Amino acid sequence: MSESKTSPVDLNTLRQDIDSIDTQIHELLNRRARCAQQVAEVKLAEFTAAQQFESSGDSNSSQQLLFYRPEREAQVLERVKAANNGPLADDTVAFIFREIMSACLALEKPMEVAYLGPGGTFTQAAALKHFGHAVISLPQASIDGVFAKVESGQCHYGVVPVENSTEGMVSHTLDAFINSPLKICGEVELRIRLHLLVSSQTSGKEIKRICAHQQALAQSRRWLDANFPGIERAAVSSNGEAARMAAEEEGVAAIAGDLAESQYGLQRLAGNIEDQPDNTTRFLIIGRENVSPSGRDKTSLVVSARNRPGALFKLLEPFQKADVMLTRIDTRPSRSETWTYVFFIEFEGHREDPKIIDILNTIEQHSIMFKVLGSYPKAAL
Ligand SMILES: C=C(O[C@@H]1C=C(C(=O)O)C=C[C@H]1O)C(=O)O
Description:
Catalyzes the Claisen rearrangement of chorismate to prephenate and the decarboxylation/dehydration of prephenate to phenylpyruvate. By secondary structure, this protein is α/β, with parallel strands linked by helices. It has helices at 3-6, 11-54, 60-67, 70-83, 90-106, 122-131, 143-151, 171-178, 214-219, 221-227, 239-248, 258-263, 311-321, 354-365, and strands at 112-116, 136-140, 157-164, 168-169, 183-191, 195-198, 209-213, 232-236, 252-256, 267-270, 280-287, 297-305, 326-333, 341-348, 367-377.
């Protein structure tokens, strides 16, 4: 005879248990929030003391930057994942703690994050995944617009797409870095799941036109050929814009993600219609401050060498000698001189690690242009 038959657990008792656990979680959450507030007070006191010596009058904006510590947040997320014994999945607990930290930090004043808009795009989803939902996310019309908002100090951080697993690099983002003083402060990876969405007025009726960003159309082309042959497809400026059109025009369907679906109150006719099941986009967090080491970091570098035999080899050799893992390398034509190239190199480690300092010094000697774009924690979610 099974255990549950001899001593059936009563539903009411279970619910009382849940209520009592919730009360404890609630108390602990507020205890944690008070602790985070105290950390903020300590940081502010240290900052104010340091300023008395430097006397560089500073704004509210940089006070907010003082409270937010990307490397510490990455460590918290890694720690909860490592300590997790289930039944909740590691990623699930990390997401919950992501939101807890976001809410604690927003007690001071929510951070403002610029992203490539409009609302409902995957870049907004990436911003919320990285910072949690307590930030204020502000849509910008272009990648340059995102850089400008952060450079001017109007926003604390920015989020821009940098590469897609099926479509390759977003070259505009790489080019923007070359002339910008901003630093890479983090990275986010997002599984891109595309859905066919319609408004309630279109649901059940004929679809006359399917709108989406050209990348989303390309990423679901085979599915569309099989399921909607002969229906007009229109490329629009973003998935968010496609969702807005579907919400307003009868007979229009959009291909977009979860966030656009909920923001525009659309219905899902078909889910996960992307042709590549592991379709992923990587985004970068850009900011004005360097990030301290978290222990699990990456560094991005842009460098240009004299155009002569073995130039690229000379740039890469120090990594091999020091046994440092390269995570990506890309080439872009240099804007200043025809047929010269700049290389974007990404590798594991932080610019303050002694081994990395040596590598960077060697590379700088072999290059005509050299710029560390930033060291930042590897994506933890
Ligand atoms: C509490 C701190 O400050 C902020 C809040 C954090 C949190 O809630 O865990 C973590 C890092 C910071 O963004 C801290 O630096 O420890």
